[in-house]
């Protein structure tokens, strides 16, 4: 396992750091560090603090905030930015943009697991300017060019 520096910005997380729910889990659950309940009307978006800051300190890593599938599928609770991207040099608190895309109001409970964080490898590139690419099987075909369906 890779070690990651983390700061706790909310005392309620002291014995409750984000963790993997099972040994094979990819995501670390992020909690809504709210003082009280927060009702999110249909269509509304709110920025929710998670009480933690991380420092990936390696341009070869990034963290991504993803919705929790249960909340998304059952309640329409997803992310206002669809996916949140945490840069390796970001040291501030992680916030979750929570979007209620459903038809009913949803009440977020304090410390509820509201989203999940995955750590992913990233490849940084430099551009090599060319006039022509070397040939590939696909070429410029896209958007359904490979078949009828
Ligand atoms: O859901 C998110 C998305 C981003 N961030 C933090 C970490 C990230 O490194 C920083 C900047 O995010 P991004 O680059 O996506 O935002 P931007 O709108 O391009 O702003 P900036 O000019 O700060 O890069 O904000 C979060 O806490 N939650």
From TrEMBL:
Enzyme Commission code(s) on record: 3.6.1.23
Residues noted as binding substrate in the record, renumbered to the chain: 68-70, 81, 85-87
User: Which GO molecular function terms does the record list?
Assistant: dUTP diphosphatase activity; magnesium ion binding
Main EC class the enzyme belongs to: hydrolase
Picking any one GO biological process from the record gives:
dUTP catabolic process
Pathway it acts in? Pyrimidine metabolism; dUMP biosynthesis; dUMP from dCTP (dUTP route): step 2/2
One Pfam family name is: dUTPase
Catalyzes what?
dUTP + H2O = dUMP + diphosphate + H(+)
User: What the protein does?
Assistant: This enzyme is involved in nucleotide metabolism: it produces dUMP, the immediate precursor of thymidine nucleotides and it decreases the intracellular concentration of dUTP so that uracil cannot be incorporated into DNA.
Q: Which family does it belong to?
A: Belongs to the dUTPase family.
The record, for NCBIfam families, names:
dut, PRK00601.1
The identity of this protein, by name, is: Deoxyuridine 5'-triphosphate nucleotidohydrolase
What organism does this protein naturally occur in?
Answer: Andreprevotia lacus DSM 23236
Gene transcribed to yield this protein: dut
